[in-house]
Amino acid sequence: MITRKKRVRNKVIQHVSLIALTAVMLYPLIWMLGSSFKESSQVFVDAHRIFPETWNFSNYSDGWKGFAGITFGTFYKNTFIIVTISTIGAILSSALIAYGFARIKFRFKKFWFVVMMLTMMLPFEIIMIPQYVMFNWFGWIDTYLPLILPTFFGVPFFIFLIMQFIRTIPTELDQAARIDGCNTITIFTRIIAPLVVPAMMTAAIFSFYWRWDDFMAPLLYLQSPDKYPVSLALKMFSDPEAVTNWGAMFAMTTLSLLPIMIIFFIFQRYIVEGISTSGLKG
Q1: What residue ranges are annotated as transmembrane (predicted)?
Q2: How far apart are CA 69 and CA 72, in angstroms?
Q3: Between 20 and 30 A from 10 (CA), which of 26, 35, 68, 85?
Q4: Is 50 contained in some domain?
Q5: Which residues of the chain are under the pLDDT cut of 70?
Q6: CA angle 78, 249, 220 (to 5 degrees)
Q7: 3-state helix, strand, coil in the chain (%, to 5)
């Protein structure tokens, strides 16, 4: 009886702690949602109040109008173009490279794998200037090419994730396929690729998140406002030389989170399955 009461008490404490932690983590999002309905002048005056006394729905229509005749529909379209193409490139190239590291024998394989892993440790600030100089020499500034094309050469983290997943697949499948006349490419497309879909989906979700939230790279390479993604467009609300429309800014920020939340709730099982199945083990 004492043991049962102790278990119930521990369960209650655990659930209360989790609810409290959840409330703390969600508070900034709830405050942002409430602020998107406040008058711009009242956002920080009534900062202690989550929801306004008078709801101002015009913030969403005012924010959607955008700037200089460019609506947020254009910014969303630009973002989806960048995110979709770069995600497809990152997943396809990373899966192919991961297959090479996991299944194909070639000279200096371990050396190139170590080099690839070392690139994961390089912060963006180190390669930022060399990349800008190179892309400027190519004439790619103010285009989407610097944001999209590098992803078609693989992303180290995705390569490592998918490679670990491939290593859990028995090599006997490859041998049986070769007996049936399949070559290396056919084995990858017909056997390996369908089996590593959970890992590829996990990588795709991460790529979508990272590209959607990316601010620094578009800031460096894009100069025309009609090519800006949502991340740069939100920055345009803040003008140190004029009055910032905080209500419209929070309204558009709230809308910018919707695609990420929708993707997460639809594909969250792939995140767990992709990571737990591969286990990130060697």
Answers
A1: 12-34, 80-99, 111-132, 144-166, 187-210, 246-267
A2: 10
A3: 26
A4: no
A5: 1-2, 47, 239-243, 270-282
A6: 45
A7: 75, 0, 25
CA distances from 231 to 32, 72, 107, 235, 270 (A): 16, 11, 43, 7, 26
pLDDT single digits (tens) 223-257: 988 999 998 988 887 765 566 778 888 889 888 88
178-191 pLDDT, tens digit per residue, is: 888 888 888 888 88
Is the residue at 110 inside a domain?
yes
Instruction: Specify which residues 70 forms β-bridges with.
Output: 67
Amino acid at 225: P
**To 5 degrees, how large is the angle CA 8–CA 9–CA 15?**
90
Distance in angstroms (rounded) separating the CA atoms of residues 176 and 116: 31
Cα-based torsion angle of the residue sequence 101, 103, 105, 106 in order, rounded to the nearest 10 degrees = -30
Question: Smallest Cα–Cα separation from 113: which of 152, 167, 151, 150?
Answer: 167
Structural domains counted in the chain:
1
- Looking at residue 240, its pLDDT comes to 58
CA 275 to mean position of chain CA atoms = 16
Spatial contact of 43 and 247, defined as CB atoms under 8 Å apart: yes
Distance CA 41, CA 94 (A): 48
How far is the CA of 264 from the CAs of 64, 205, 259, in angstroms?
24, 8, 9
DSSP code at position 279: T
CB 242 within 8 A of CB 67: no
Backbone φ and ψ of 50, nearest 5°: -70, -50
Q: What is the pTM of this model?
A: 0.83
CATH number of domain containing 78 = 1.10.3720.10
Q: Is 6 a domain residue?
A: no
Q: Which residues constitute the domain of residue 179?
A: 60-281
Say how many residues make up the chain: 282
